[in-house]
Structure formats: C-alpha cells, structure tokens
Write a structure and sequence with these properties.
about 120 residues; alpha+beta; Tetrahydropterin Synthase, Chain A; 2 helices
C-alpha cells in the first residue's frame, strides 16, 4: 500500500453553534488542510497520483471556503462548522474527483486538527 499527502491553505471565519465558550463568537483561522491518497497500484511513471492533479482538485474545493464566513455557506446552514465538519465537507467534495482519497485532516491551529476518513470494511 502506498500513501501520499499534500497540503493546502485557506483563510475563513466561523463560529460554533450550541457551544459555550469563546468559540461561539465569530473568529477566523488560517486553516491548513492535508489530503491523503492511498492505493496499491502505481502508474507507468511509478506514481500513485500526480501531485499536480491532487493539488488542483484540493485547491478547487478550498477556493469555495477561502475568505468566507463558513456559517453563511448553504452547506453549513444550521450546522456548527467545527473542524470535524469542515474535514467531512472537504472529503466528500474531493472524493468526487479523487477516488483514491483516504483522509482529510484540517488544522485550525498548529497544535489542533481533526480528520475525516471512511472506516475500512
């Protein structure tokens, strides 16, 4: 099994719903996103997936979130846009384009992150 990872960044504001504490107030992050791809087979160049392709598709998803108030996006209407839910959102959007996608990790600070991946059966 092979695995590759790329990183990308976006900036956005959000606030948590049904939460008591400072994060219930609107605030922003410079988010770092890691996209992981896994697979058993390499192509004729001995690569799992071209980084250019992975980065292009990831950046297309992140451009939708960049410089937004995530709470105002239709996909988060009446949802608390936690790091976990943002990871899920990015995963589901990117999985439509990158079928080998195995995990998305969203860092809201240098020490705090959340990941989304589908359980292996």
């Amino acid at each position: 099994m092979y695995e590759i990872k790329t990183q990308a960044f976006f900036s956005a504001a959000h606030h948590l719903l049904n939460y008591e504490g400072v994060c219930e107030n609107q605030h922003g992050h410079n988010w770092m996103v890691e996209a992981f791809v896994q697979g058993d087979d390499l192509d004729k160049s001995n690569i799992l997936i071209d980084y250019k392709v992975l980065k292009k598709e990831l950046n297309a998803v992140l451009s939708y979130l960049d410089h937004s108030d995530i709470n105002e996006l239709p996909e988060f209407k009446n949802e608390s846009p936690s790091s976990e839910m943002i990871a899920y959102f990015i995963y589901t959007r990117l999985k439509e384009k990158i079928v080998q996608l195995s995990r998305i990790t969203v860092w809201e600070t240098q020490t705090s992150c959340a990941s989304y991946f589908e359980a292996q059966t």
